[in-house]
Amino acid sequence: MFVNGLVTNPGWDWVTFGRYFATETVIRALGTTIQLTVLGTVAGFALGLVLAAMRLSSNAFLRTVAWAYIWAFRSIPLIVQLLFWFNIAYLYQTISVGLPFGPSFGSVETNDLFGALGAAVLGLALHQAAYAAEIIRGGIISVDEGQREAASALGIPRRRQFARIVLPQAMRSILPNAANEVISLFKGTSIVSVLAIPELFYQVQVIYGRNSRVVPLLLVATVWYIILTTLLSIGQYYVERHFARGSARSLPPTPLQRLRARWAGIATQAARRPEEVAR
DSSP alpha helices (H): ranges in 56-143? Predict the structure, then answer.
């Protein structure tokens, strides 16, 4: 009944959907959404890695600073953080580089440094870092301590222990949660519409504000979100498969490999039938 409604209900207005689905403005807005996702993910996980290392440090000061950061940025809603960074010039008109309470070596106007896009990337990255830190920390502590002890007994340097032994095993725990965070960030970029950044959702709002075709324009955004989320999920599957190589003697076939095997089986059966008829 739902599929029938999609076809027969004129409210979906598929003509308007087709007209705007791949227009230049929508594609440009989609590019902005992807840009925000990539920058927020890279910066967020880079900072998250540092915070995770601080949480695992033996230094009490570093652990406290990392815990306080994670506590603060997980407690404040993302939309509040975005609006705060967008209005940071209200508190600090200039940002200087120099000695604390001493001379300044240089300064820059805050409005020149933090535009709408810069504030959005900074807010997304700082918000993402708090969650990424806990994901990375959870993956690292999931590796059995005996792995490190055995590596130390063999004289393997600590950096090599982490890169070759701990990290590949930790990635199996990190990847599912990290992929979920990336997908959530991709969809969460719609929140930056409050800063009037022309990303996908904001641009759709602008268009349906002009022509009042709300449902088909929302459907345009929905389909693009579904397409890119699906591509991210496929990428997640193959990355997880890569890091799962050491956990099993043989990996299960991929969906494409299963499809090829099934097609080969059908072709083999079709080739045998004329021989059976001839007999």
Answer: 60-75, 78-86, 110-113, 116-141
State how far the Cα of 101 lies from the Cα of 266, in Å rounded to an integer.
78
Dist. CA 122–CA 104, nearest whole Å: 24
pLDDT for 219 equals: 92
Angle between helices 60-75 and 24-55 (to 10 degrees): 150
In whole angstroms, what is the distance from residue 138 CA to residue 269 CA? 50
Which region, left, alpha or beta, applies to residue 246 given φ > 0 means left and ψ of -120 to 50 means alpha? alpha
Q: In this predicted model, what pLDDT tens digit does every residue of 138-192 receive, in sequence order?
A: 888 888 877 777 878 888 887 887 777 888 788 888 888 899 999 999 988 888 8
Alpha helices in the chain (DSSP H): 2-8, 14-20, 24-55, 60-75, 78-86, 110-113, 116-141, 145-153, 158-160, 167-188, 200-211, 214-243, 255-278
Please, are residues 30 and 222 in contact by the beta-carbon 8 Å criterion? Answer: no
| 205 neighbors 193 (Cβ within 8 angstroms) | yes
Bridge partners for 95 per DSSP = 108
Interatomic CA distance for residues 189 and 35, integer angstroms = 10
The residue behind tokens 């996980």 is 45
Residue whose entry in the numeric block shows the structure tokens 């099934």: 262
pLDDT in tens, 48-83: 999 999 998 889 999 999 999 999 999 999 999 998
Report pTM. 0.81
Q: Which of 69, 229, 58, 41 is nearest to 134 (CA)?
A: 69
Is residue 91 within 8 Å of residue 102, measured between CB atoms? no
Task: Give the Cβ contact number of residue 99 at 10 Å.
Answer: 9
